[in-house]
Amino acid sequence: MPPQILLTSFTTWLPHQKSNSSDDLIAKIHELYLTNSDLKLPLLTVLRRLPVDTQQASNYVISKITEIQPNAIICCGMAESRSQLTVESRATCGNIALRSPIDLEQLIAELSVTQISHDAGKFVCEGLYFAVLNHITTQKLNSHCLFVHVPILTDENIQQVTKDFILIIQRMALL
Q1: Are 152 and 158 in contact (CB under 8 A)?
Q2: Domain interval for residue 126
Q3: Which SS3 state, helix, strand or coil, does residue 8 take?
């Protein structure tokens, strides 16, 4: 059976936001997955437009993890102030930090618009990432989790961001 990956995105949370770039990217990836058999993506399950509420979002995602038991989870959120995709190395809650066990340097090697971040934002993104990493650890699941922050998508960056993200998905499927 091919690897299964769960992709998640959030809805907007501020009045000026017409959309959430994480959701826009996931929608684009899902459309490509459904329409392009040459893309060579693993089995994808998409959980879009999560509420911008840590407890609700975490409950939805953990419920879906329990249901489908994916090999990997890639949670995505929008980072309006960033110009590149960023993979988060850790999530903190209070004095506890949970680190991604994924070799992030290897994961992003040769990607053109992706870098590693050590600050998941202290908002719902970090809360969700912490909850999922904690769930995987406490339940001793054989899944890998990654949080990716997506910059505002523009005509200038959409193709390269999409290309990098597809490579991240493909590499996560090999873990």
Answers
A1: no
A2: 4-173
A3: strand
Q: Which tens digits make up the pLDDT trace of 82-106?
A: 999 999 999 999 999 999 999 999 9
In whole angstroms, give the CA distance from residue 21 to residue 13: 12
Question: CA torsion 146→152→157→159, rounded to 10°?
Answer: 60
Q: Of all residues in the chain, what percent carry a pLDDT higher than 70?
A: 100
Write the CATH number for 80: 3.40.630.20
> DSSP character for 151?
P
What is the number of structural domains in the chain? 1
Yes or no: say if 150 and 80 are a contact pair by the CB < 8 Å rule: no
* All residues at 6 or more sequence positions from 95 whose CB lies less than 8 Å from its CB, including other chains: none
- Give CA–CA dist 13/17, Å, rounded: 7
- CA 77-135-173 angle, 5° bins: 60
In this prediction the pTM is 0.96
Q: Does residue 41 contact residue 169 with C-beta atoms inside 8 Å?
A: yes
pLDDT tens digits along 6-48: 999 999 988 888 999 999 999 999 998 888 777 777 899 999 9
Q: How far apart are the first and last CA of the chain?
A: 15
**Could you give the C-alpha distances from 125 to 23, 87, 92, in angstroms and in order?**
13, 12, 11
Residue 168 token pair: 């991240």
